[in-house]
Amino acid sequence: MPAQAQTLSGADPAVGATLTTVLVVGTHAGAARRDRAEVELDELEELARTLGARVVERRVVNLREPHPATFLGSGTVTAVGDRLAELGRPAVLVNDELTPRQQRNLQQAWQVPVLDRTEVILAIFARRASTAEGRIQVEMAQLEHLLPRLAGGWRHLERQRGGVGLRGGPGETQIEVDRRLIGQRLKRLRERLREMERRRGVQRRARQDVPLASVALVGYTNAGKSTLLNALTSSTVLADNLLFATLDPTSRVHSLPSARRVIITDTVGFIANLPTELVEAFAATLEEVRQAHILAVVVDASHPDAEQQLGTVLETLQAMGCGQPAILVMSKVDRLDGNQRALMAGRLGAIAEARPVMVSSTSGEGIRELRAEIDARARDAVPDTRANLPTLGTAAAPGSNGHRAR
Predict the structure, then answer these.
(1) Quick one: 48 and 118 in the same domain?
(2) What is the CA radius of gyration of the chain?
(3) Which 3 state secondary structure label does DSSP give 313?
(4) For residues 19 and 53, is the Cβ–Cβ distance under 8 A?
(5) What DSSP letter does each residue of 357-376 carry, written as one string?
(6) SS3 per-residue string spanning 261-274
(7) Is the dihedral of CA 140, 45, 61, 75 positive or negative?
(8) Do residues 339 and 368 make contact, with C-beta atoms less than 8 angstroms apart?
(9) Neighbours of 5 (CB within 10 A)
(10) d(CA 320, CA 316)
(11) What is the pLDDT along the chain (406 residues), one digit of tens a residue?
């Protein structure tokens, strides 16, 4: 394979924004897990589309055990390399997590950027973050991910080995400089984030002084949370058929049928195998979920992987220590017939151990029932809410903008 002058590293945070065409690769261990691999690869294709890239081909590879040097077997590496040449060398997205060594070797073999699942999600978050806090959190996650991958980017310094002031392996001094710069940048970002967290903590305590119940809409990405927030509160929050269409959580103050007022928050969607860097970086934002009085767990009932997605959401909430009262919401039920609804209600209800409320945000079906359920839960969570209604002119009108969660 002819070598190019330089291959962009998929670990570079800027590369994700440059992708136009991609080939996606997924793996499975044994024929029994192929169907699951296909569903996961469907999700990777959606992630690629959200990133703005066009998928030119997909491959599902049977992989009993990852190769320590290249993750994929040598035959697969060669076959994919030949196909990339035929397709004009699109970038490659791998649905598994690659080690720094595996990523470097694949990029050298294929002479194209190679991004694993974590880097694809990081790139999307970088594009979608719109608030200062969100951008800081994304940059921190990117830098943490980049640190162990610095070594592969400095092979061009091999010729400097033995020069004045350089000791050790190839490019060692340059790597140390970069690590120090990244460390300093991370320190500054953490300080800024702590200050933002402190201010948000003050705002949260102020909200708690006015006993309004808070409801967090949580669920898998693209489950319909933003559209549901719009349907509940007559808002115009961005709602698009893309994964992570809205990254920055948004809250609205809303009046329920009893005149009780609640704060409803649309939160960032969860996803299977959420990168550790993002879980840690977004701990402050996820605190909004932890602090909510009520959780509305939204599931796209029409999705072929709805049960698995609900399981992922419940596991994530458990890992976060969330034990609040929860409402199971089956969204997009307008896409199901009567038998399918009953079947999914039984399956999802058994997983969540709750009776689901069926809604369609587009047709309005079930919205009244969901409001009533929230009203009842809010009464139990904050019994004196109605006695503390603000007077005219002291708060936003129902359905108007509340606070931005970030």
Answers:
(1) yes
(2) 24
(3) helix
(4) yes
(5) EE--TTT-TTHHHHHHHHHH
(6) EEEEEECCCECCCC
(7) negative
(8) no
(9) 5
(10) 6
(11) 444 446 677 777 778 888 999 999 999 988 778 888 998 899 999 999 988 899 999 999 999 999 999 999 999 999 999 999 999 999 999 999 999 999 999 999 999 999 999 899 888 888 877 778 778 888 888 888 888 887 544 343 333 343 333 344 454 567 788 888 888 998 999 899 888 878 876 766 666 666 788 999 999 988 989 899 999 988 766 555 555 555 566 788 888 888 888 999 888 788 887 766 666 666 656 777 888 899 999 999 999 899 999 999 999 888 888 889 999 999 999 999 999 999 999 999 999 999 999 999 989 999 999 999 999 999 888 765 443 443 333 333 333 333 333 3
Does residue 308 share a domain with residue 161? no
Tally the domains of the chain: 3
Q: Which residues pair with 218 in a beta bridge?
A: 297
Distance separating alpha carbons of residues 309 and 306, to the nearest angstrom: 5
> In the numeric block, which tokens belong to residue 7?
């291959």
C-alpha torsion sign, points 333, 336, 341, 345: negative
Domain of 117: which CATH number? 3.40.50.11060
Q: Are 59 and 84 in contact (CB under 8 A)?
A: no
- 3-state secondary structure at position 232: helix
Beta bridge partners of 32: none
Task: Mark whether 269 and 368 lie in a shared domain.
Answer: yes
Q: Structure pTM?
A: 0.75
Query: Does residue 333 contact residue 254 with C-beta atoms inside 8 Å?
Result: no
Q: At what angle do helices 283-291 and 172-209 cross, to 10 degrees?
A: 20
Residue 10: name the closest of 19, 21, 23 by CA.
19
The CATH number given to whatever domain includes residue 387 is: 3.40.50.300
Residue numbers of the domain that contains 185? 132-190
* Torsion from C-alpha of 44, 48, 51, 54, nearest 10 degrees: -170
Residue 376 and residue 308 in one domain: yes
| 204: enclosing H helix or E strand | helix 172-209
- Other CB atoms within 10 A of residue 204 CB: 16
Residues 261 and 370 in one domain: yes
